[in-house]
Prior knowledge:
Blueprint: H1 2-12, E1 18-21, E2 25-29, H2 38-53, E3 65-70, H3 73-78, E4 89-92, E5 97-101, H4 109-127, H5 135-149, H6 155-162, H7 171-174, H8 185-205, H9 207-218, H10 223-231, H11 236-251, E6 278-281
Amino acid sequence: MIKIFLLTFLLNSEETWNRVDTSHFNVFFEGKWQIPNIAIDLERIYNLMNFNLSYFAPWMKNEKTNIYIYSSYENYLKGRFSPPKWSKGLSLVNKKTVVVYNTVKKDQLIPTITHELTHLYFESFFNQKLKRPPLWLNEGLAVYMEDDSYQDEHLWNKALRYSPKTSYLKFEIFFKTDLNSIKNDNDIANWYLQSYGIVRYLIEKNKIAFYKMCSDILNSKKIEKALWDNYRIIDSDDFEKKWFYWLSEITSGKKENKIEFKPFKRIEFKYLNSHSFRHYDI
């Protein structure tokens, strides 16, 4: 009985895992399986992160981030990080650690890691003052970086280009909406899409202003005031008009042939009001 217990412990212990060290990550992965080009892919993602997020996490240049990749969803749940069973990834800010599991969809591993790394780096910025960023800003930025990580088709960009205008909430309602109050899967997916679109608009309009806006929010400035000071956005109605005008510009070149785009069957995220140093996504 004791031998069986010890064997089970060793099999589930990260100490027995394979390890790959890159210039900026310590990658631990479970089992004998190999992840093709993982070091190359992660350093590609690091360059993307460094370009966009180093303002929020300057430590990323000199301190490595730990990435744990479980071989299956079942082992992920049984591992020492104790994630909730509906999650597919988590970030531990104080430990500079991201935890995910491998899936049969190999092309989803790097985007998932990118999403979680974004939470890690961005939340570390707010953690300086033991705060959390606004949810739409946190998730919108994570989806923005996730979409940038795709080497081929950018799925969120495609969703933004082809989703009907009726997919989006009025801005006055959107900024007051508690994501946990949304029960319909399509409505949840549309909330994430709108968050992504809003963050993308702010970054593409003026990246320096985006950094300053986030700093203002960190320093307890109201979001409305931060938007006015950095973007001259008067209120939610003004923001909505400017956003839809921008959206019409980026979609003006799309082909008008009949295209049916249904990305949301595979986009599954849910926010949990959890401990300030731990972030879950599903």
